[in-house]
Amino acid sequence: MLFVGKRRVQVAEDLADLTTIDHEAECDPVEAEMTSAGVNHIWQTVEHLYRTGIHPALTLVVRRRGKIVIKRSLGCVSGNMAGHAGPIHVLEPDAPQCLFSASKAVTALLVFKLIEQGKLSLDDRVTDYLPEFGQGGKGHITMLDLMSHRAGVPFIPKEHRDPDLLRDYDRVVRLICEAPSVDNGKRVQSYHALTAGFLIGEIIRRVGDIELNEALHKWLAKPLGCDYLSYGIAAEHRDKVPLNVATGQPLLWPFNRYMERIVALPFEDAITASNEDAFMSSIVPAGNMYASADDLGRVFEMLLNGGVWEGQRVLSQASVAAATRPVSRTKIDRTIMLPMRYSPAFMMGEKPVGLYGPNCGQAFGHLGFLNLLGWADPQRDISATFLNTGKSMAITGVAKLYRVLTAINKECVPVVA
What we know:
Blueprint: E1 19-21, H1 36-50, E2 57-64, E3 67-78, E4 89-90, E5 97-98, H2 103-116, H3 143-147, H4 169-178, H5 195-208, H6 212-224, E6 230-231, E7 245-246, H7 255-263, H8 267-274, H9 277-280, E8 289-291, H10 293-304, E9 308-309, E10 312-313, H11 317-323, E11 331-332, E12 339-340, E13 347-348, E14 353-354, E15 357-358, E16 364-368, E17 372-377, E18 382-388, E19 390-391, H12 395-411
Parallel strand pairs: 7-19
Antiparallel strand pairs: 1-3, 2-3, 2-18, 3-4, 5-8, 6-8, 9-10, 11-12, 13-16, 14-15, 16-17, 17-18
């Protein structure tokens, strides 16, 4: 297998050799109030997406009514890209992958653990915990503003953008604190792709007197029984992580500038950096959490159950309610330039169409680097994670990804109004 023109996977007619199904985990669809035909329909849309050649590796885990109906992977960890002479290494459903910006949703939940401990409040000012943030007209910004993309510092200053910067945690925090507000303190909604995560992470460290990976393990990964959920990933697991790959046509102006503005690096430089050991060894609170699809699915299933996982309370009901409550109506986001609605932790769904498919007004979750998704939809009683490795803005890929979401929402019929 090779990329056609070095940018696209050459797809075999028979995908069986590249498909792995966790039959032990998947239930009889009837137990989840679904049908075998419905499950097959969903998976067929995943296969159609793979056949675009845009994604070298795909993993989907869907829970419905608390039971796993799909836990499958399609594609390769490595060996199916141009220039890779090594053997095909088929992806397994439990392989860890970088969550990119979906990391934000999980990091935000650590803040709610501190709220439960009485150590902070969303109404407090950021400067109550991070006094140096008050520079440049930002002293009035609250924790709620920071966690809902209204803090006025959506970008790392352009003159400091380079791959090495994200590995210097303390310097990033200092640069963001020193930066002036870009909206004159008006709390304009503007997606903070990386910046807010560093500030939130530093506040968790200071207020909780705990390092981020320790907090993540203690408060979420361990009680949920996750295999990997961590910032960065241990060296012994890196051979399991599928490569992220730029696919489709190279980005041209203005799309390349658009993506650079969001991810703080030129598009393909960001992808290259994500495959390097240095990135995997760093802590980027809003951008380099690693997890299997099932790990992230457990987080959303716990939230769907009001903070409880397998009979154990992980988050309080009050925390779940606050984390999933929108902070405002839908409005054009000044960074993404699309209509968005945020809660303090999540990107919210919409009607009649939204980020998680059609009629997903009750859904909450997060997007990661263009096309990776984790979400829950109380209306359908589902939690789902769709991990993928192809980084492309190709229209055909976007359209077929949306067909996957449409199929999930169609086959998982609403259980509540």
